[in-house]
């Protein structure tokens, strides 16, 4: 293999072997240039692969991001240069993994998405992080099911009944509400319970209809 295409020799920011530049910029004018390598970008991201196939593309790819996720974009670029076995160890918090996950999904970086999901499946969460986790991973499809399983309500039938009853009440639909079945009990930490509100229940009903 040509040493210029050897992933073991190519490092993030290596200007000597760089053949393309990534420009990260946000709306308030912050921007940085990062020496990158088309071989790595095309291998790890279908977004970059498609972009580099465009005859009008040049030696600089510009990516616009917000101030909030700027650092997550930078982290994602660094992740593209890591061996698969080192990706999990590169995350140091749930918030960081969630941020990188959203960027990786947008740029179609499959290996990074998979590693983020593995990390979120394995590490403990704070109760305050659970809502954000649900919102992010519920958009990923089947790959996110291991994470969603951790916050799945124990009494799914009861949760659906609560939701349907609330809809009937709000829309004044005639007819009896469905039975509640088993009584709803408080759930342990990292479990989705009906008391978390209608938003979570809506997410779950969408997932039920999608995958069942």
From TrEMBL:
Pfam families in the record: BTB
Record domain BTB: where: 18-81
InterPro entries cross-referenced by the UniProt entry: At3g05675-like, BTB/POZ_dom, SKP1/BTB/POZ_sf
Cited SUPFAM superfamilies: POZ domain (SSF54695)
Signal sequence extent: none
Pathway: Protein modification; protein ubiquitination
Database matches in PANTHER family: OS06G0129200 PROTEIN, OSJNBA0011J08.25 PROTEIN-RELATED
Name this protein carries in UniProt: BTB/POZ domain-containing protein
Source organism: Sesamum latifolium
